[in-house]
């Protein structure tokens, strides 16, 4: 069964498309947090939050003025980087009071014929407790590059990444009874949902892939779970980080690379 977009993907708008841009600025007059992301970037670069209508108005004015500035003939015209705005999930499930997401892997091993593989990844946590209204981006973005900017990172580095087995045990202990979850929810319901979402995204994009033998790609897929245990796809990364900054990553990443090759 194919999922509807709203079943797994937060409401999003492309700011480089006029109709979507106008629809967003019409909608964001309400008090709601949005997250603005550049396309074709990584490590949390260029991401910021829009927390109120005034911030959205400022962005709208900035986009309008950048379009109005006609470049001189001597200066080569360059289109501004495409961005999306995404409705911020402000009630995420927390682990020990901290926001987290899950990085998993989709290996497109072959496109002639199509061959896909799934690999469990790891859980990425923030250094400090979650506060939806915080202006500190390290409270909102879980990736290691961003967490390194937090003053607590050096002492908490190994606590910012959990194995999936640790995550599964934690959910079993803390949430199975109170939220009426099946035992090992992480490795059953959650894993099947990630695979279903990955497959649907692949089916949507497969016609764009080169059907040439020898081509492959490892995609890093980021999922967030909200407090109702609904699974959201945040983004898919064509160039996932493969560094090994902490103990868990030193165990997981080399195996993922080895198995991919």
UniProtKB/TrEMBL annotation:
Under Gene Ontology molecular function, one entry of this record is:
protein-glycine ligase activity, elongating
InterPro entries assigned: TTL/TTLL_fam (IPR004344), TTLL10 (IPR027752)
**Which Pfam families does the entry mention?**
TTL
Q: What is this protein called?
A: TTL10 polyglycylase
What's the source species for this entry?
Answer: Asarcornis scutulata
């Amino acid at each position: 069964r194919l999922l509807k977009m709203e079943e797994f993907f937060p409401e999003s708008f492309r700011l480089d498309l006029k109709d979507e841009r106008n629809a967003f600025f019409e909608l964001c007059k309400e008090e709601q947090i949005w997250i603005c992301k550049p396309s074709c970037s990584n490590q949390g670069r260029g991401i910021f939050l829009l927390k109120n209508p005034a911030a959205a108005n400022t962005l709208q004015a900035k986009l309008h003025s950048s379009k109005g500035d006609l470049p001189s003939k001597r200066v080569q015209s360059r289109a501004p980087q495409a961005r999306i705005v995404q409705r911020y999930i402000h009630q995420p499930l927390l682990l020990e009071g901290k926001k987290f997401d899950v990085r998993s892997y989709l290996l497109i091993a072959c496109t002639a014929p199509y061959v896909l593989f799934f690999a469990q990844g790891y859980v990425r946590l923030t250094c400090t407790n979650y506060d939806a209204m915080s202006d500190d981006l390290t409270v909102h973005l879980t990736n290691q590059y961003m967490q390194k900017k937090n003053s607590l990172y050096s002492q908490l580095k190994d606590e910012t990444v959990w194995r999936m087995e640790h995550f599964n045990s934690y959910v079993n202990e803390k949430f199975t009874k109170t939220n009426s979850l099946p035992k090992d929810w992480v490795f059953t319901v959650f894993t099947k949902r990630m695979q279903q979402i990955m497959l649907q995204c692949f089916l949507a994009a497969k016609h764009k892939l080169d059907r040439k033998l020898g081509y492959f790609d490892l995609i890093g897929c980021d999922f967030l779970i909200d407090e109702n245990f609904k699974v959201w796809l945040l983004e898919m990364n064509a160039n996932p980080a493969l560094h090994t900054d902490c103990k868990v990553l030193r165990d997981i990443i080399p195996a993922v690379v080895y198995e991919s090759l």
